[in-house]
Amino acid sequence: MRQFVLALAILCSLTLSLRAAEPMTRADQVRGDKTDVEDAGLWIYNDLEKGIAEAKSNGMPMLVVFR
Amino acid sequence: MEEFVRVRMVQANAMDLTRFQFDYDLTFAAFLMNADGTIYGRFGSRSSQDAMENMSIPGFGRALEAALDLHDDYPANRAALAGKQPVTPRYERPEEYPSLTEYAAELEYEGEVVKSCMHCHQINEAERLLYREAKEPVPDKVMFPWPSPKVIGIELDRLEQATVSSVAPGSLAEDAGVKAGDVIETVDDQPIVSIADIQWILHHADDGDHIRIRAQQSSETRDLTVTLPAGWRKNTDISWRVSSWDVRRMGTGGLVLRPLSEEDRAAAHVDGDSLGLRVDGMGKWPPHNVAMQAGFVKDDIIVAFDGRTHAMTQSQLLAYTMQEIDAGHVIPVTVLRDGARVDLELPTQ
Fold it and tell me: Measuring CA to CA, which residue among A7, A67, A2, A63 is closest to residue B56?
């Protein structure tokens, strides 16, 4: 059950940034997606090396999503 | 949320292909891994037009849970994870493919951000194009990548980690003794966290390989073996793949084909052993409009293709064009149109 909630939270956080956006051009959506995800602070955005460094530092496993 | 370092990658540009090997036609793919690059498992599967057929939030949760267990046991379980690790790719970065050199490593967020973004499926297209331009047949592994376990007769419950929901009668899996309700613990000694992990093994499997499955049900553990016969991959459906559009461009002039229903076959007098694919659509703009220019119309029924009249799926026909026909060849095609046979010539690219 705990992992179900975890998975649901992770996937929702990936979609929230898109749903919150006003209707706009595709380019604006891409730029807005970057801003929204970074502001939410739940994901490291498009920076694999930063994620690796953090995981090495705290010993945690990594979840790398291509989306 | 606190148990993983979460990284979202949004581009294929500069993707490390020595590390991230997955079904590049997916719109969602996940790696569960150690910071040292060791992969615990993959998540993300698709085998049809329904993008969610093989994925679910509960299934994702199961995969996360399994990955945490593997992380807890790491590095003692390093040997068990060896088979999951990436193989040496042709190129280290997608931009090294000849057809993708125009892409830079970084997106142009201040400029043409959309145009600057390479999509993952373009990697599959670039790989096939290498063979096409070299006038070499596209190998089955490239033509039919990441086979679903359905190809060997296993339907997995998308809500679970790796639980068999059904086994196709007469299938390779049934012959091996796989049963509905089996929990697949390992395949070729690799711990399975999701359907994608099984696809990884099938992706690299050759004709004649013996796939070893450890299945558990009702406290009983069974070791089973599925032997892959010649041509087993050719039953894979590739028509849902975004990258198949480029195959259609090259091989069928942009035609989108659908199988005939039994009723359609009866109405058209096309028996079950004969070729019968309906034109469901076609490209209207260059370079995907070659079939339209050649005179094909919607609802034409293809009954002969390059002299072949035996039944083929759309996927098998597409593979035929990439494996048996050189670019530039003109394919003679016969269609049924309003009850009459019409002969057309279909240029390939």
Answer: A7
Closest C-alpha to B255, from B231, B282, B228: B282
Burial of A58 (0-12, 13-18, 19+ CB in 10 A): exposed
3-state secondary structure labels for all residues of chain A: CHHHHHHHHHHHHHHHHHHCCCCCCHHHHHHHHHHHHHHHCCCEECCHHHHHHHHHHHCCCEEEEEC
What are B112's two structure tokens? 């043409």
pTM value is: 0.91
A9 touches chain B (CB under 8 A): yes
Q: From the CA of B348, how many Å to the nearest CA of chain A?
A: 33
pLDDT tens profile B318-345: 999 999 999 999 999 999 999 999 999 9
Q: Is B195 exposed, middle or buried (0-12, 13-18, 19+ CB in 10 A)?
A: buried
Domain boundaries, chain B: 244-347
Rounded to whole angstroms, the Cα distance separating B149 from B194 reads 11
- Both tokens assigned to B348: 């390939």
d(CA B254, CA B77): 48
Task: With residue B195 as reference, give the H or E element that holds it.
Answer: helix B195-204
- b/e sequence B310-321, b meaning 16+ C-beta within 10 Å: ebbbbbbbbbbb
A24 Cβ under 8 Å from any chain B Cβ: no
Which tops the pLDDT comparison, B224 or A39? B224
Q: What residues does each domain of chain A span?
A: 2-58
Contact criterion met (CB below 8 Å) for A30 and B117: yes
Residues 6+ apart with CB under 8 A from B79: none
d(CA B11, CA B121): 11
CB count within 10 Å of CB B236 equals 23
A60/B68 Cα distance (integer angstroms): 9
Contact B58 A60 (CB under 8 A): no
ipTM, 2 dp = 0.93
Q: Which amino acid does the sequence have at B165? A: S
Query: Are the C-beta atoms of residues B147 and B200 closer than 8 Å to each other?
Result: no
Q: State whether A58 and B5 contact (CB < 8 Å).
A: yes
Of B203, B295, B297, B283, the closest CA to residue B250 belongs to: B283
CATH superfamily of B244-347: PDZ domain (2.30.42.10)
